[in-house]
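Milestone 3.1: sequence recovery, worked example.
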């Protein structure tokens, strides 16, 4: 590190510390001033429904003072600085009867209320209609309606209406959201077309760390849906929220202690049709509160054990073809002849995955009401997922040009239809013990512990939280066995969506004595991320427009992150013992019902049980497999904000504020030569500060209509692996991989406009527009070197390095409708309809191809132009059913060196169905069928007809019992 750079980093740190010190001094002086002038009383309360479940989003109003409040996710509200006296408060909640209650406020005291509301029926043409199953929808819509900023809220009851085992599958139902899947389950969230790493995910307001080694993605499939009470997606963040939420911020809220004893449980089973093996699931939630209502507790546990798999085909396409003329030049190098060809499959694979996924989750929450002014809480969650996997892979790859001569191949209609190839049979597994069970075991864990409090200090309302979170992924004793041979293959190019290479002589495919030993390996991987967080907020009454409902809020946050990856890789020479594949244990998958198509015959493989039983000793380390992957990163973020919420009129509300985030980064990576030679480690530091102002307007011309307008600024920090200052020269592949610690954070200026109409019978009609102006987005640059500047003999090598693009824009529109169709006659009034649609268009500039020329034909990666969710449901007192659809359009996923190499994520349409039957008030049956149409995960290269990967999962059926005592 040069002296100037070090001085700049030190200067930035000093400025940041001065900012933080000034911020805390301001907070302290504000707190002292406000508590010293406290002369009035306060009101706090809890609002519940007829079953003592909390009602979030209820409005509480003292009309004589023009002062109001809204309940939080725990049904609690507070109003400070109320003059002593007797008032009538009005409580409203969508779908429930309005309520009025008298309350007396005493000077310098806090009055505590407990309010129970009752659902209302709707009368049409003098006929009373009763809405079934709408309580969860009402809770979500009330919260969404009363938020000043633009949000989407989903409650636990709504989650239960869909067949979603993990929280990722539940989130994909939200407007503007699509998910990237892993083994058929939603894993990575894309909000408004922005990549998973550009969105933030929190648990009860505390950031969830990521166990992914090369990005910031939070694995949404790690958390069971039945452990979450509410999902809140914020699309226009406020200054009191983390600023690194370019697309949006998802907050997962766990259940809190109930007002009375509650016991809830599920027990179920099912079948995964791709393997015809069982599914087991169960959950338990139990909670209560002491007689004096001060101490509440709740514990919950969940388990889901699924034995499933996937059938996969993959292809690599090229538009170049060369062969050896049989003549060498004066230097002894082969002279190659180039033949013009149409795009064709150069390499092809079939893959069979067999997976057991066991997802466990545990949660324990406590809260203690010291007195009406002081409350403490402790929330914890531990998620543990085991993924056991076997993979059986056959790969075909055309021989290098210098190994093919004129008589070795055939070209038909401009496409190589016959050519010599290298064929490999490979099995992935693990050791034979109680944990691995002869499979690769991926052990992922995420834990989060939060301690916080909410306090009234005179006129000041304050809350704070400190938390510790950790995510880890460990893969021990991951084994691979690979044998290879060569023979001539035929290229079936009759349908590019289902490409295939296969043996010209069928006997070659089963001649296992011709498959020679290539490698047996065992690897170890461990990634972990530790997060320590704290925040504190102070809020006090402050009216700037002559109304009584304004506030000023300010606060600070610190987030301290450490992330590391420590991998290793060993190779074992067993060629003398097992020189050919026929001498190993074999497993025949010829009769397997391969979902990609009957024409694909998998054949025989090395048995994973044989691989697991091997005693592997004296392995040789292979640094090229892990040196570039290993790193250490520390990232510290200090933030402070100030904002004010004001009622300009009784119908117009505004929020104005600014947030400042200061980031310190230190990254250490390896400097490598010739793949295996560790030259040393390289450490780089970086520091930067972002100022993020924001303005929100909310206009409510009547009780059922809301318009919102927002201008916000957000950022996204680069992926850790991109920041690692590593240099890896892979001479065998003529490739160079370079990190970039000088990457800038991606920033975005956002504009949002939305209108919402809330039906009295519980429902929503909304439409809106949004625009994002993004600067310094990160993409993977590919080019060829023109000199030996990166090392001797590296001219012509392909270089890969993450770079900042110039800018990008996203313009989108959103539409949502949900309602019970209670205006229909007879039984039809029990139908309900749910629909949301998002349209996106984007443009990216500053992306350069392999020749250094700027490309002008690209959308911003991961921006799906069309997203749609729809469901039709029916519910009466004893029965409910729902048919749901989730569609996401195709989008560019990875930018290649040119347009021919670009990779696209294909469109997806998932269809699901679920039913529920009430056996009694407490006991019910449920059934769920997922992925009815066997929708595959599919990537294509350049054009949609050119399959690069297609992975099929089949259907899953689950059924069981639910018991709820309250």
């Amino acid at each position: 590190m040069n002296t100037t750079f070090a001085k700049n980093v030190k200067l930035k740190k000093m400025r940041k510390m001065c900012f933080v010190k000034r911020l805390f001094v301001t907070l302290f002086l504000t707190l002292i001033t406000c508590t010293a002038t406290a002369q009035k009383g306060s009101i706090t309360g809890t609002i519940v429904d007829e079953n003592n479940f909390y009602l979030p989003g209820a409005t509480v109003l003292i009309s004589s003072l023009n002062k109001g409040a809204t309940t939080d996710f725990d049904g609690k509200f507070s109003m400070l600085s109320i003059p002593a006296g007797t008032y009538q408060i009005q409580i409203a909640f969508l779908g429930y009867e309005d309520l009025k209650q008298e309350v007396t406020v005493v000077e310098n005291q806090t009055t505590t209320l407990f309010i129970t509301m009752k659902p209302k029926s709707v009368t049409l043409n003098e006929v009373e209609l009763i809405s079934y199953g709408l309580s969860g929808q009402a809770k979500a819509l009330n919260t969404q309606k009363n938020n000043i900023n633009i949000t989407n809220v989903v409650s636990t009851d709504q989650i239960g209406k869909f067949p979603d085992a993990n929280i990722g599958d539940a989130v994909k139902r939200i407007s503007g959201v699509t998910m990237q899947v892993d083994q058929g389950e939603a894993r990575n969230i894309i909000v408004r077309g922005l990549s998973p790493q550009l969105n933030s995910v929190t648990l009860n307001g505390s950031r969830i760390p990521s166990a992914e080694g090369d990005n910031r993605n939070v694995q949404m499939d790690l958390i069971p849906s039945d452990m979450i009470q509410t999902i809140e997606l914020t699309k226009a963040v406020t200054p009191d929220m983390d600023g690194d939420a370019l697309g949006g911020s998802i907050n997962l809220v766990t259940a809190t202690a109930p007002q009375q004893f509650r016991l809830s449980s599920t027990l179920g089973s099912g079948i995964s049709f791709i393997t015809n093996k069982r599914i087991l699931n169960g959950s338990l939630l139990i909670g209560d509160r002491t007689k004096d209502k001060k101490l509440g507790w709740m514990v919950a546990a969940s388990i889901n054990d699924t034995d499933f798999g996937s059938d996969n085909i993959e292809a690599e396409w090229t538009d170049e073809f060369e062969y050896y003329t049989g003549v060498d030049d004066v230097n002894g190098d082969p002279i190659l002849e180039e033949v013009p060809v149409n795009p064709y499959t150069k390499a092809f694979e079939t893959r069979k995955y067999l997976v057991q996924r066991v997802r466990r989750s545990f949660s324990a929450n406590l809260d203690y009401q010291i007195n009406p002014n002081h409350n403490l809480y402790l929330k914890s969650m531990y998620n543990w997922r085991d993924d056991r996997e076997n993979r059986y892979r056959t790969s075909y790859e055309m021989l290098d040009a210098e190994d093919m001569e004129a008589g070795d191949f055939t070209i038909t209609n401009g496409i190589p239809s016959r050519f010599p190839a290298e064929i490999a049979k490979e099995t992935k597994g693990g050791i034979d013990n109680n944990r691995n069970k002869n499979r690769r075991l991926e052990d992922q864990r995420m834990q989060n512990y939060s301690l916080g409090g909410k306090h009234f200090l005179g006129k000041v309302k304050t809350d704070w939280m400190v938390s510790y979170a950790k995510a880890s992924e460990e893969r021990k004793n991951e084994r691979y066995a690979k044998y290879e041979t060569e023979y001539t293959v035929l290229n079936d190019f009759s349908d590019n969506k289902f490409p295939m290479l296969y043996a010209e002589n069928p006997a070659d495919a089963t001649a296992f004595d011709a498959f020679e030993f290539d490698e047996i390996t065992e690897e170890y991987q461990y990634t972990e991320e530790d997060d320590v967080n704290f925040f504190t907020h102070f809020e006090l009454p402050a009216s700037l427009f002559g109304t009584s409902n304004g506030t000023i809020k300010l606060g600070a946050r610190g987030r301290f992150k450490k992330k590391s990856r420590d991998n290793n890789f060993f190779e074992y020479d067993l060629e003398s013992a097992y020189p050919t594949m026929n001498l190993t244990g074999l497993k025949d998958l010829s009769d397997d019902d391969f979902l990609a198509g009957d024409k694909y015959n998998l054949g025989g493989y090395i048995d994973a049980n044989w691989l697991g039983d091997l005693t592997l000793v004296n392995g040789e380390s292979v640094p090229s497999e892990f040196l570039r992957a290993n790193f250490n990163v520390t990232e510290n973020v200090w933030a402070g904000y100030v904002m004010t919420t004001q009622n300009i009129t009784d119908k117009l509300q505004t929020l104005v504020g600014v947030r400042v985030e200061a980031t310190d980064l230190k990254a250490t990576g390896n400097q490598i030569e010739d793949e295996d030679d560790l030259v040393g480690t390289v450490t780089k530091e970086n520091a930067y500060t972002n100022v993020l102002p924001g303005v929100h307007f909310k206009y409510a011309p009547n009780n059922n209509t809301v318009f919102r307008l927002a201008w916000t600024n957000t950022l996204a920090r680069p992926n850790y692996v991109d920041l690692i200052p590593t240099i890896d020269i892979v001479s065998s592949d003529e490739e160079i991989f370079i990190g970039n610690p000088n990457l800038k954070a991606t920033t975005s200026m956002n504009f949002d406009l939305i209108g919402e109409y809330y039906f009295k019978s519980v429902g929503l009609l909304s439409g809106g527009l949004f625009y994002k102006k993004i600067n310094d987005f990160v993409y993977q640059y590919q080019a060829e070197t023109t000199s030996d500047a990166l090392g001797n003999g590296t001219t012509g090598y392909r270089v890969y390095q993450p770079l900042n693009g110039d800018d990008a824009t996203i313009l989108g529109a959103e539409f949502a409708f949900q309602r019970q169709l209670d205006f229909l006659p007879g039984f039809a009034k029990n139908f309900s309809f749910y629909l949301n649609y998002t349209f996106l268009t984007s443009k990216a500039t500053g992306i350069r191809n392999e020749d250094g020329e700027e490309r002008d034909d690209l959308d911003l990666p991961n921006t799906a132009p069309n997203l749609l969710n729809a469901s039709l449901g029916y519910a009466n007192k004893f029965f409910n059913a729902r048919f749901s659809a989730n569609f996401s359009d195709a989008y560019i996923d990875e930018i290649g060196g040119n347009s021919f190499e670009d990779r696209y994520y294909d469109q997806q349409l998932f269809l699901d169905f679920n039913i529920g039957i009430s056996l009694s008030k407490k006991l019910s049956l449920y059934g769920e069928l997922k992925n009815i149409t066997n929708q595959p995960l599919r990537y294509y290269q350049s054009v949609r007809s050119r399959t690069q990967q297609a992975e099929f999962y089949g259907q899953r059926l689950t059924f069981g019992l639910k018991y709820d005592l309250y």
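The chain has a mean pLDDT of 87. Residues 585 and 894 are 39 Å apart (CA to CA).
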